[in-house]
Amino acid sequence: MTEAQKVQLAAATARKELRALALTEDATAEAIAEATTKVDNLEARAAVLTAAEEAENGPDKLTTEDAEGREFRRLEGRVEVRRYIGAAMDGKGVDGAEGEYNAALKMGAGSFPLRILAPPREARATTNVDAGVSQGTWLDRLFADTAAMHLGISFRSVGAGVASYPTTTAGASAAQRGRSEAIGDAAWTVGVKEIKPTRNGVRAVFSSEDAARLSGLEDSLRRDLRAALTEGIDRAVFVGDAGANENAGDITGLQTHASVAEVEINQTNKVLASNNLALFVGLIDGQYAAGLNDLRLVCAVGCATLWESTILAVDNETASMFKTLGRFLRDAGLSWKVRGGIETATAAGDFGAFIGLGRGIDGAAVAPVWDNAKLIRDPYTGAAKGEVSLTLQTLWGFDLPRAANFRRLKFIAD
Predict the structure, then answer these.
(1) How much of the chain, in percent, has pLDDT values that exceed 70?
(2) Distances in Å between the alpha carbon of 165 and those of 156, 162, 407?
(3) pTM over 0.85
(4) Half-sphere CA count of 236, side-chain side, radius 13 A
(5) Which of 6, 97, 144, 350 has its CA 20 to 30 A from that of 41?
(6) Strand order in the sheet with 295-300
(7) Using an 8 Å Cβ cutoff, are 18 and 32 in contact?
(8) 78-82, 316-320, 365-369: lowest mean pLDDT where?
């Protein structure tokens, strides 16, 4: 065990002692403050030792991340939500570390990356929890991959108040004029989409006995809560969330949003290459999409499975190779990301994919986030039962200032 790992273990022990002290009825504020300082000092020392060991031994000996991944993680550690908020309030794009971070994610300077709320990648050492028990690496819960930003949804950090997004909906057309010919008046229309904050949250309760028995339990729960919140917001963008007990708290997703146009394909044509390709070529209008490469697809599992498993014909190059519908579409110039939690079948009425038409898509669909997510740790309410609760919540919203940039693919009956 390295010196840094020893100090990390001492810090974990100090945190347990602090939690136990907080549950004691006669604990004084001075004692809690002293225990808190001890934890802070140990964690700071562990961070310094870890950095020194990485510099001496090389990070490849301490983690399985590649060089690009380590550089991205360092950049992610420099990003601060408050600078996104300040830029949004000033009506400017982010620069500095935040600008580099958005560029690495291939996002616009005015976008807010939802993955900031996701759990960081960590390297955790194996430690002995108690006599005779050796705890291995903790396997966190896996969630469906987030895909809203891939589709073209802009996550924006906003300040207090209603988020307002104006959009030009109609205007004049330019035309040649003769000598002394007056330019006629034309209607110029602006629509304003206002989005109010709604609350999304997730909660976990654990016992002090489990925290003492399992090293890293609370850290794991915090990671799980962050991942659950991130995945839940991303899923709501696609399928909505009407789980609130009042309409004001509901989210209308792309699947049911009245402003999103549908493209349809029936049960016979859904396995035919020419019909599928014609459907996507039909979205190229020279305005919102100039080519197949302007189409951003997020597929449901059912649709992706259909495309990848439908054999079209024997490949002309090698008789033993077969071309699938998925390969045919990729060869034509399409690409897509698969997201779980949307649809698993392709029967009539099921949705196969959501499509973002890429020209001018920045800001066409927005998910404003009010400030940062807040984690509330409560060791008091359940103290009599030795319980601690963790509540993670954030305020956000979703709507489409310009829905013409989006389509949804629906399977219908013959």
Answers:
(1) 83
(2) 11, 10, 20
(3) no
(4) 24
(5) 97
(6) 261-266, 406-412, 351-357, 295-300, 336-339
(7) yes
(8) 316-320
Are residues 117 and 226 in contact, defined by beta-carbon separation less than 8 angstroms? yes
The helix-helix angle for 96-104 and 67-78 (nearest 10°) equals: 140
Backbone angles phi, psi at 150, to 5 degrees: -65, -35
Do 152 and 366 form a contact (C-beta atoms < 8 A)? no
Q: What is the pLDDT of residues 235-294, one digit of tens each?
A: 999 999 998 888 889 999 999 999 999 999 999 999 999 999 999 999 999 999 999 999
Q: 105 CB contacts (<8 Å, ≥6 apart)?
A: 113, 115, 149
**Which H or E run includes 83?**
helix 81-90
Ranges 102-106, 169-173, 392-396, most confident: 392-396
Distance CA 114, CA 157 (A): 10
Residue whose pair of structure tokens reads 């945190």 in the numeric block: 15
- Whole-angstrom CA distances from 220 to 111, 227, 281, 390, 392 are 29, 11, 46, 12, 14
Query: What is the DSSP code string of 168-186?
Result: EEE--------TTPPPPP-
- Do residues 222 and 399 touch, judged by C-beta distance below 8 A? no
Taken as a whole, the chain contains a residue count of 414
Phi, psi of 90 (to 5 degrees): -85, -5
Tokens of 153: 């949804």
